[in-house]
Fold these 3 entries.
Entry 1:
Amino acid sequence: MISTDVLIVGAGPVGLTTAIVLTQLGHGVVVVDGQAEGAHTSRAAVVHSRTLELLEPYGVTPALTARGVHTPRFTIRDRDRLLVPVPFEGLPTRYPYTLMVSQADTEAFLLARLTELGVRVLRPALVTTIAQDASGVTATLADGRTLRASYLVGADGLHSVVREQAGIGFGGGTYAESFTLADVRLSGGVPQDEVILYFSPDGLVVVAPLPDGLHRIVATVDEAPREPDAAFVQRLLDTRGPQAVPAVVEEVVWGSRFRVHHRIADTYRDGRVLLAGDAAHVHSPAGGQGMNLGVEDAVKLGEALAKVLAGGPEDQLDGYAAARRPVAEKVVALAGRLTALATASAALRPVRNLVLGLAGRVPAVRRRLAWQLSGLDRRQLGSGTPGQEPGRWPVSK
C-alpha cells in the first residue's frame, strides 16, 4: 500500500496545480491518472489575468507568459461591425491581457514544475473505488493496488469516479447545440492580437490567436463533424466571420467536437474527499472560464489542505467548499448568459446585435466585462486579496 498526505486523482491542469501547491508548502502528495500519458491536444486555450496571479507564487507563470500570445482586447462583432470592445490594457494587474496558450502547453509547464519539486505522476493508474474512514481514505486501482491518504482530491473531470464514489450529486443539464473546435492556420483579415466573438445571422464563431501562428476556431452548429476539415471551417468563416477582408483557412492542424454541459456538484466536500475543477463544475466555454476556475479551485484547495495538514482546524475545508460553490454559480451564470446571446434564434439576432451595439458604447459596460472575464472580480471571493471596483482602475503595474 502506498501512503501519503493527499492523493490527487487526475493529472490535468487542476490536479497538477493542487499537487504543486501542496508540495511547495511541504506536504506529501501522490498524483494518479488513468491515461497512459497526458493530452497532446488542446481544448482549453485561455489563461486569464487572475489565474496568472494565482500561479505566480508557484513558479509557473513566467513559462506560461513567455509561451502564450498576449491579447489585450476581446471583441464582439457582427461580421465587420464592432459591437462590444472589451479592453484589458487598463486592468490593475501585472497581466493586463488574455493569454492564449494551448492546454497541452499549460499541462507541460505544470508537470515540469511538479517534476522539479520531486513528484511524478503515476500512469496509467485508474481509480475504481474509494472508501473513507475517520482517519483517511483508501483508493483501489484497476490493477488491484491500493493507496492510502489522509485526504483525497477528485480532479478527474466531468465523468469523475471520485464524485460518483462519494455519492455527490451533479445537477444541471446539457445545451442543445453542438460545438465544433479547430486549430488552424489562417491568412486574410483576422488580427493577431485580439480574441473575436463573431455574431452573424448564421450563428456564432470565435476566432482567437495561438502560439506558432495558429488560430483557435470555436463555433456552434446543429451537428458538428467528428473531425472538421478545412472546407467545413472555411464555410463557417465565410458565413459568420469577417467580410471586408475574408479569413482563409490554409490548414486544419487539429479538430474536435463537443457538447456543452452546465452542472455544479451538490457539495465540494464529503468528509475527507474534496472536489475541484470539472469534477465540481462544468459550463459553456463562452468567456473561456472553465480551466481558469478549476485552477482557482486548485490553489484555494491546496492552500486550505496545507493549513489543515499543518495542524489547523479542519473546518477550513468546509470554508473551501462553502466559498467555491457560489463562485462556480456566478461563473456558470455568466457563461450561460454569453451562450444564450451567442445561440439566440435567427429571429432574435438582429435585436440582440442592436442592443449589444448600444451597450458596447457604454464605458462602464466594457469595464465590467473586462473585470469579469479576467477573473479579477473574484479576487475578493476567498482569495485573501482585496477586490477593486472596476469603476476606477489604477494604472497597471
Entry 2:
Amino acid sequence: MYFQTPGEKIKEIRKLLGIRQSDLENIGVTRNFISMVEGNRRRLGEEQARVMFQIFLKKADELGLTLDIDCDYLSTSPKKAALIYCSKKLLEDLSNDEIDYILKISLEYSLHQIQAEAYILKANRVFDKGIYKEAFVYYYNALDLYNEIKEHDKNAFLYNKLGKCKGNTLDYLEALKYFEKSYQNALDIGDISTQNNSLYNIALCNKKLGNIENALKSINEVIDVFYKENDFTNFISAIIIKANCLLAIKEYQQAIDLYNEIIPVFTDETHCLLGYVYHNLGLIYLEKGMLEEALLCYNRAITIRELSNPSKLARTQIEKAKVFMKFKMYEQATNMTKNAIETAKQYNDTEFIIDGYYQLEKIYDETNRLDLMEEVYLNLIELLEGIDKKDDKIKIYIKLSLLTKYDPYKYEEYLKKAVDL
C-alpha cells in the first residue's frame, strides 16, 4: 500500500473533479503556490486546507460524486496515514501474511508502537503452537521497541511471556530472571493480575530448580491472594505447586492431605485441574511404593486428561509406565512409554519427549535390549540441540561410545563429539 503525500492527494482529487490550479486561487494563494503544494515543496495552512476541502465537496456534489474523505485527509502525512491504517487493521483478526504486511509498513514509516504490537501478535501465534524459541525473539523485539519509545506499561506482560518461553524450553534459571523482572514491573504499575501470575511462575521455577524453600514462600503468598479473590482456577493451581514442593521434600502425608482437602471442591469430575491432582497423587503413591493406589490415580488422571487436557496426557502415561516397570510388566511399560512420546510430540512437549526417551533407556537396560539403545540416544541428542544441557549431551555421547565399542568408526566418532563438547 502506498500512502500519498498531502500534495499528491490534492492533485489527484483536483484532476478527478476537473478543477484547474487557477480555480483554487480564491482560497487566498497563487497558482504557483498550489503547484508547489502538489509537488510537496510547500504545505497548506489549516484554514486553506479547510476551504479547499469545501471547494472539492461542492464540485463533487455538482458532478454527482461522493468523496469519502474528511477535512483532515488533505493535510494528513503519509506517516500519519500509515499509522491510522495500521491501528485499524490491528483491531481485526489478521492472517499471518497481514501481520507481516503491517510489520513492513511499520518498519518503513518508523511506527515503533505498531511494530511492537505486530511482534506481539506474531509471538502469541507461534507461542500457542509451541514454537517457543521463535516466540521469544518476537516478544524480545517488542520489548526493545517499547523501551525505545519509553512506553513501559507492557514490560510486565512481556517479561512474563519471555519467562514462559524460557520455561517451556527447560531453561528455568533464565525463566526465573524474567519472571522476577515481570513481578517487579507489575508492582511498579499496579498490575495485580500479572504480579500474581509472575509470583506463581517464580514459585514454579524455584520448584523446578530445587529451591523448595523459596518456592514455598512464593506459593504460600499466591495461595492467600487467590483464596481471598475467590479465584478457583489459580487457587487450585497454586495448591498443586505447594503439594509438589511437599513431595520434593518428602512430606508425603502433608501433600496427600492437601490434595484430599481440595478434591471435594471440584463440581466437574472432568476438570483439567482434577487431572493434575490425581496425577500428582499417583506420583506420591509411587514414591511411597503404594503401586496399586498409584495405578488407580494414574488411570483416573488419564481418563480426565483424554477428555479435557490431552496436551498433558503424555506426562501421566510416562508415570503409569513406571508402575508397569515396578510390576516387571515390560511390554506394557514399553508400549505406554512409546504412546507417551508420540502424545508429547503432538503437543510439542519437549520436556516429556525427553523424559519418555530416558524412560525407554531404563526399560531397555533392564530387559538387556542394547540393540535398541543407540536409536534412543540419538533421539535424545537431537532433542537436546539448542537446549542448555551440555553435560547431558556429553554423558549420552559417552554412553554411545561405550555402546558401540566394537564398531571402531562409531566409537571414535561418538567419543570425539563428547570430547569436543
Entry 3:
Amino acid sequence: MASPSSLDSALISLTCTDHPTDIFAVATSPKLVVSATGDSKLRVWNALSSDHELVREISTSHRVGIHHVSVSSQADLLAAVGFDGSISVWTLSSGDHLITLSDPKVTFWAVSLASDGQYLAATTIDGNISVFARDDQGFVSCGYLETKGTPGLCVDYSNDGLYIASGHENGGLYIFSTETALLIHSLAGHVKSVRSVAFSPSSRLLAAAGDSRIVTVYSVKSGEMVFTLPGHSRWIMSLDWNFNGEHIITSSFDQTLKVWSIENRECVATQNEAEGPVWTAKWTKTDGTGRPQGFVSAGTDKVLRWYREASGT
C-alpha cells in the first residue's frame, strides 16, 4: 500500500452494498468476501471485480442470525456461528453444506478455522475452547482447552498451526499450544472484555483489543507485551493484520475504522463514513502480485463498505 504518511488520503470508498439487517461479521479469501447478518443468511461477494457483485446467498438454519464467520481458502471451507449456539460448516466455493456442530450442553460463540482446514476451534459461553478435527464426514470433536470459566468472545489459529489464542468477557487472554494442548501464556493488559484476537502472518505476534479501547500486541514466544496502540474512544469490536504484517485495521463502537502502522506504532488512517458502530473490518487478500487490495467494513448501518487504494499513489 501507500507509505504511512500518505495512507490516509490514499484509501477511498469504492462501493457500498446494502444488507437487510446488521452485518455482524465478515471473512475474506483471495477471491471472495463472506458477510454474516441477523437475517440468518451468509452472502458471498466477488472480492476482485470492480462492482463486487453477489456470488451467492446461503440460507442457514441459524435462528435469529449469525455473528461470527471464518474461512480457510486453502481448504475451501467456511464456518459460521449463529445466535442459536451452533456451528455450520460449508464449502466456500460452492456453498454446499458440510456439517452442523451442536451440543445441547454447550453454546458456541466464536470460531476459527486453521489455515489448512484440518482443525476448527470454537469458544463457548462456559469459557472453554472446543477443538474439532476434520474427517470424512466433516468435523469430529477431539477435545477442549480449559480456561478460567468466563465466556470466550473471540478465538484465532496462528498461521503455522502451532497456537490458538482466545479472548474472554472478564479480560482473560490466553495462548495455547496445539502440540501439547496446554496453556503457555495467560496475558496481562486487559481488565475489560477482549472482543478480538489475531496472530500476525508470521505467527510471532498476537494482537488483542476490546472494551479497554486499546490494541495490545504481544510476543507469542515470551508472552510479553511489546507495545500498545491507543486511539479509539469506544470499544474496539474487531482487528485484523494485513497480508505482510505491516498494518493492523481496527473497527470500533465509536463509528470509525483505524489503520495502524506496526513499524511506527501509530495510527496512519481513520475512516468515519459509517453511520453507527462498526462491528467488523477485514483486509481483502492479495491478487497474486503481493499488493493488498484494501479492506471491507460493516456494522449497524447495514452497509458493507469496500475500500481500495486510490490510483496513482
